[in-house]
Amino acid sequence: MKHLWVALAVLALSAFMPGKASAQGSSPQSGKLQGAGSELGQNYPNPFNPDTRIPFSVGGGAECTDPSRLYRVSLRIFNVLAQPVAVPVLQGGSGNVAGGDVLDKLLLTCGQYIAYWNGQDDRTQQGVASGVYLYRLEVDGKPLVKKMLVSK
Question: 46: Cβ–Cβ under 8 A, 6 or more apart, which residues?
Fold first, then answer.
């Protein structure tokens, strides 16, 4: 039975780490995953309790070639069983996007951003349990995934 749970967890995780995204190069110095002109940084602090920030860039960040282009951006937190836990909010904000906007199909111009997660499950409004969680940035349908640790 234990092997069945492990197999299910691996299967669930593989659904969130498609071949292209997981095969993308990761810089050991920055800890960032790159894909489609976007980057997903490691959350900080990591491990964390009670909240964390997640840096990311859209459209090449500082090397932006079309500052008027809008990208559809979503960021979600999942547990290791691939169940959705939370949708972080944009910290600060820039351009015509206010800070505090939920990162769910949000239209952003190219640039560098920081997401904020308060460590709570959106369904229960309670703090999540200690453990490994995945965060998945999707920019115009192209995903980047990293993991984080909650330590209580």
Answer: 52, 148, 149
